[in-house]
Amino acid sequence: MQISGKYFAIIILLAGSLSIVSCRRDVTVFGIDDLTILPINSEKNKPKTSAQYISVLYTNLFQRAIGPNDMLSAQKAIESIGDKQIAYDILVSKYMNDPTLVLPTNEEMRADPETFVRNTYTRFLIRQPTEAELAWMLNYITSRPNVTPELIYFSFATSNEHFHY
Amino acid sequence: MNRRKFIKQAGTVIGGTLASPYIMPSGLMSLSTTAPMAEHVVFVLFAGGVRQQESVLQQYLAGSQNENVEGNIMYNMLSGAPPADKIAYGRDDIQNNIIGAIPIDRILQTPLAEQGTLFPEVRFSKGGAGHYNGLSTGVSGNYELSQSLRARPASPTIFEYLRRHAGFKATDTWFVGVDIGGSRPLLNYSEHADYGRRYGGNFLAPLTTFGAPGMKHFMDFKNYHPETEWEIIREIRGFLNQNFSTEGLEIPHLYNTEEEAYQIREFVRSTFEKVKANNLILPPVNDNRDLKAIGYAVEVLQWFKPKMLVLDLSDIDVCHANFTAYLKNVHRADHGVGFLWREIQRIPEMQNNTIMIVMPEHGRDLAPNPIQDLNMWYAFDHSTGNLNTRRIFSLVVGPGVQGNLRVGSEANPVGDASDIVPTIADIFGIKQQVMDKGLLDPAAMSLFDRI
Questions:
Q1: Segment B140-182, tens digit of pLDDT
Q2: 3-state secondary structure of A137
Q3: Which of A13, A154, B177, B314 is deepest in the core (most CB within 10 A)?
């Protein structure tokens, strides 16, 4: 069948119109909500009571709960010294002399320092270290042969973050 | 030196003192700061609520038990003959089974009232006669009329004034509490926004620190090397604290420097060694808590030579239920104060360079309660509103303090319980700065200005 030039032009015109209508795209505009970026420890904004601190400290160091009588006398001892940083330093120093303290060995720490650091952050600060923190700690451990798990535990146990929740 | 020359020289010195700025220990210079009268002050809060009748009035049993026996049982502090009969305030005569029959030997040949100035009728003029109110008024110079007991003072304490305005470091100022009860651990700094923990004094309750709790949790604590192990701890802890950057969230420390913190730890370690060796400095008679606390206070004085130490005693408070024990503890508190003054003179840095102030935190009731002791003597409380609880005394002794002077009388009371803070500020040359802050009780003024 032959198609005249007139009909051909009409068909072309219709096809062109349809293609224009059907190819119109939906336009989507993406936005960004404002978000305040906080350090990962920023939600710890409440100081522990001496009972809370001693309880958590004891559990972290000995992997068992402190008894009620020991808790009461530890609280009294802490209360008897005004500067609490000094009081807690002495308390932790005393606990570090206890043979039942649960502490990784120096060999274990140096065999896998990253695992040691991650476990220490988890144990005391209930979080993983940031990449920057991990890098600093690994560098500190590997560059200083005198650093021991005990000194690292002491530092974490008496840090400001460990005192807050 | 003739009189004219003396007056001329004295005038030059006084004029220079008034006109010249004094450079404080911190290196700060202030025109309103004058040269200190002494390098050290020891303030004794004496000693749990004492009645005028058994102290400055020397009435012994005549003022309380309707027995005609008078006399002075505080002969290290006050002038006057001791009772001649019914001796029950001394050490027990075990051989003859007589309670308190042997008076304790005097320590000071010259009573402190003769060495210094006695204000025999001072007033605890506001609020209830409670221990916390008394102690907090003593250290803050302000009556805390509407404050709960388990809170720090609302007004700055003398520790904060001295650290902020005189530039004292933390170990220059100490509060030695007889124990941790009665909110004593809260009295070393206030809640005031302009002062507070940043300027707090060190606190120690030695009977707890070196008693059973401390023996369990502190004694034989590990001795880390200060230049190797502690350096590592400081570096790691510093890194951790730097990352925990939320402002103000820190373990509540008192801004002791690293060196001061080391000295405090070493003091604790050394004192435990003395405890174990039974080698503490103690008064000759030390059979109550107050006397042992005084011994520990002397240990603090010897170790730190602090510029100011506040010591509170409390055994007199047995008077609620036992008048005989009260008399014994009044006698012992006097013994302890005499011992304290003698030991201060044995510390070279503090000898002839220390002013001691003694003031009860409040008095006790005029009328007894119904409780009788083994001598059938009645006990006394300290009740709110009882005028006898408002009667106290102040005793000041040391360099520059006029000796053998009594200021005031029952008919003409002179002095207020809030006076001690401006008096200490006066001694250290910062009186005007403290007064200008306007945070003292309106009645408070230096005792030296009341003479």
A1: 999 977 666 788 999 999 999 999 999 999 999 999 999 999 8
A2: helix
A3: B177
How many C-beta atoms lie closer than 10 Å to residue B106's C-beta? 14
Domains of chain B: 41-244+251-450 (3.40.720.10)
Closest-CA distance, A32 to chain B, in angstroms, reads 27
Set of chain A residues whose Cβ sits within 8 Å of the Cβ of B175:
82
C-alpha closest to that of B236 among A65, A124, A64: A124
ipTM above 0.95, yes or no: no
Distance of CA B382 to the CA centre of its chain: 20
A99 within a domain of the structure (yes/no): yes
Determine which of B251, B263, B300, B310 to mutate to test the interface with A (most A C-beta atoms within 10 Å): B251
Q: Which residues pair with B117 in a beta bridge?
A: B396, B405
Distance from C-alpha of A157 to C-alpha of B13, rounded to nearest angstrom: 56
Q: Which secondary structure element, helix H or strand E, spans residue B44, and what is its range?
A: strand B40-45
pLDDT score at A37? 61
Tokens found for residue A140: 């500190």
Mark which residues 255-274 of B lie under 8 Å from A by CB.
256, 261, 264-265, 268
Q: CB A144 to CB B205 under 8 A?
A: no
Q: What is the tens place of the pLDDT at every residue in B12-40? A: 444 444 444 455 544 454 445 788 999 99
Residue A73 lies in domain: 50-163
Compute the average pLDDT of residues B217-238. Answer: 96
Task: Measure CB to CB from residue A76 to each of B180, B188, B261 and give the nearest one.
Answer: B180
- Chain A residues closer than 8 Å to B246 by CB: 41-42, 44-45
Nearest-Å Rg of the Cα atoms of chain B is 23
Least confident piece of the model among A20-29, A59-68, B195-204, B268-277: A20-29
